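ok trying this again, last paste got cut off
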Amino acid sequence: MKKTTTPLVAKRIAIAVAAVCASLSLPAAANENKAMLDLMLKKGVITQKDYDEFMEADKDAEENRRFKEQRTDADLSKATKFLQKNGGTVMRNGIGVQSDDGANSVQLTGRVHMDGRFYSPIYAAGSSTDPFTNRLEVRRARFGVRGQFDKDWKYEIVGNFGMIDNGMSDTVTAVDVAYFDYAANPAAQWRFGKFKMPFSLEQLTSSNNIDFMERSLTNQNEGEFVPAKESGVMLFGSPQAGLTYGLATSVGRTNKTSKYDGVDLVGRGTVNISKYQFNTDAHVIHVGVGYSQGDINTFTPTMARVETRGTNAAFTSTSVTEPTRTRANLELAYAQGPFKAQGELFQFRYEGSNRDTNFNTGYAQVVYNITGENHNYSNTAGTFGWIKPNKPFSSTSGGLGAWQVGLRYSALDAGGVPLASNKTDKIQSITAGLTWFVNDNARFMLNYVHSTYDDGVNAAPSKLNGERAIMLRGQLSF
């Protein structure tokens, strides 16, 4: 009589077979599988034929596993050798790759500035309604690439995903900068595209590195008062360490028409007297001048915003027709050890067919690194850079990062410009700041800004003599 398999025995066999199959799919050693099969053979769970088939399958699985490991190791080794031979070392500074000879590179760049702004109005007589809305906003969100080809050709392209220029509207995506350089000779380089014009120490300092959350009053009106990121061509360089220059033509950003579409001429020269005259890096004595001239259709003297970015407080009226616009500035800075003092004076002149207008603005500031770090000055660019912490913040090693305090006075006096109703021609701002540089890529900022107006400004539904704000920023950049 033929023997039948009971349901219980069949279930045991199925479980055993599943266990063996599972074991064959894992990178287990051959002797471990053999011990399991020996036990099942002894208990009569499997036949000798099943045992032999399972052992052969285990042998094949082990050979396949070893082959895959060897193939993976070989592929990785081959890829590494190719990278080393044909252009591939990871950049030590930043995120990117460069060729082995350093002639070609691609590097990712980016920044995110997240701000909080909390306002307190200074009311004019008879007003008591708060016109301000406290804000949480992505002040800047930029991502791009920069690098070089064949050593002498350099480039940078950055997209801006943050707030638009006046900071009051929805987010937009736009080209922040896009240019390329021919840089075979450091003393005479060429730049083509959209880039920062050579004018103003504060404007040319990256938003990642400025000492306060916002630039001073004058630099709040980019494109009109101060040339900023504009399309053009520039010759620039550093003939000697501590000496820089830039000469550019620009199509401008405002007040251009088909009749007045000529270029603006923009130039800047700087000298670090300490380096150029005394060949020392112990301190910085920076002196710079800037100049710009060009024809525009109409001067519409509109102050885009004050440093709090709360109101458009200054004069608004069309006062000069078809003027020649002349802009000039003087830069002064001194830095030694953790201390830095910096200031600029600006003069603006509009010579039109109906009348002439001129006025002056400026700022002065001091900052001090209470943890002792020196200020990072570039003798080939004539600007200040990132504060590198002596001991980056670490919860394990006890590093505190770098801590900085600062104070700035900023003023705009446009007494020669006719006022529109409910506007002012004189603004003063005082900014106090505390900055924590966490490491080489992150910092947090706390600013208190107090702005006053000589005339009451209508910021509907109230009239103001000024505004105060506490501002916070979290920043990550690379």
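PB: full thing came through this time. The two ends are 82 Å apart (CA to CA).
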